Amino acid sequence: MFDALFKRGKSTMNPVKIGLLGLGTVGGGTATVLERNAEEISRRAGRDIQVDFAATLDLQQAKKLGLDSLRLTEDAFDVVNDPDIDIVVELIGGYSPAKELVMQAIDNGKHVVTANKALIAMHGNEIFAKAQEKGVIVAFEAAVAGGIPIIKAVREGLSANRIEWIAGIINGTGNFILTEMREKGRAFDDVLAEAQELGYAEADPTFDVEGIDAAHKLTILSSLAFGVPLQFSKTFTEGITKITPEDVEYAAELGYAIKHLGITRQTEKGIEQRVHPTMIPKSRLIANVNGVMNAVLVKGDAVGATLYYGAGAGDEPTASSVVADIVDIVRAMTSDPNNRVPHLAFQPDQLAETPILDVDEITTAYYLRICALDQPGVLAEITTIMGNSNISIEAFIQKEPAEGADQVDIILLTQRVKEGDMNQALSRIEALPVTCGSATKIRVESLA
Ligand code: HSE
């Protein structure tokens, strides 16, 4: 009785042929997931999906993955130029030759799936323009927050909303380091070495710890949220290398956790687009996202705050996004190219010229750790400068000097102020004869 129903979705069409560029962590995960879940995936997509050709420089790796019966090549351009391939899946990473390969694939009329955040953040405008011209799709769900379908959520699920802001933990390695430092008091370098061993870190781990990887991802989220072209060079980026165990401890005393956040916010003057260590109240759900996990908070005017959580890296979590993109493409292959979901959420001719604000123009609250001589009047000098700059102090801690020491740490929490004004006040404080060296400044967000 249900025969017709069961047969529906079983395609009689030829399988869609995939060309994989790269058989590393994500490439291997993609092949495994496509194979293991082939039947369910085909029931969803309406067509069978077959990995037909793969490029890898490591033929032994292909053997290890059981993929040595695939057509294999060491030259990725062989895959991109193969007339049988419908969808090219770029999992090589980096700017070049990934860009040349993707542009060539588009020129050849192939759809593209990529997990390459650096490529999209840096060259996405050019890539999407060419894809538009050629009527093909370039899908990049895996480029941001690994397995979390955040691009689909922002681009489609929240399309009714005026997005107000997004704040996310979008680098697993950095979050792992901060978590281990806070929970186990471990040293920075020691935790980074472990993240590298576990395969979370980028090929160049400075991309993780200096915030470049998160800045790539935030640039993409910002464009999707506010309908502006991708502008990676305007993303303010500060890493986590200067966070000390003392700051982690003082933050906890004040009721905060330090997280490496990507934040983008629409203001009256323009868009804030920034990645930096951020103190957030411990009571927020996102403050309790630990280890390599990622989480993204999106605030829309209609829906309110929404939170997306999951694995931001790893073979199968990232493959989950890659394969979902493949399924989306298969479903949309025969649709009118002019009526597809736009690459950057807004129609290409509707992108706005809203400026991305310089970091001096952003407004936030601050945690300051100022080293000063332990003598009368010091605090008055510091607070006078703050007062003259119209900066209100929200909380204050002064630590006992260490035995025999004549210097103390003064910790201040300020109310929200323009970064430029804060920097001016801080320069004056640092120039006082009673303070020692540069102050530590960490931005504080309530994420309310
Ligand atoms: N190095 C990245 C991270 C991998 O640690 O989050 C996923 O983009």
UniProtKB/TrEMBL annotation:
GO MF, one example: NADP binding
E.C. number(s) listed in UniProt: 1.1.1.3
Names of required cofactors: a metal cation
Gene3D superfamilies associated with the record: 3.30.70.260, Dihydrodipicolinate Reductase, domain 2 (3.30.360.10), NAD(P)-binding Rossmann-like Domain (3.40.50.720)
ACT domain boundaries: 367-447
Reactions catalysed: L-homoserine + NAD(+) = L-aspartate 4-semialdehyde + NADH + H(+)
UniProt keywords, alphabetically: Amino-acid biosynthesis, Metal-binding, Methionine biosynthesis, NAD, NADP, Oxidoreductase, Threonine biosynthesis
Binding site for NADP(+): L21, G22, L23, G24, T25, V26, G27, G28
Binding-site positions, NADPH: K117
Name of the featured protein: Homoserine dehydrogenase
Species of provenance: uncultured Thiotrichaceae bacterium
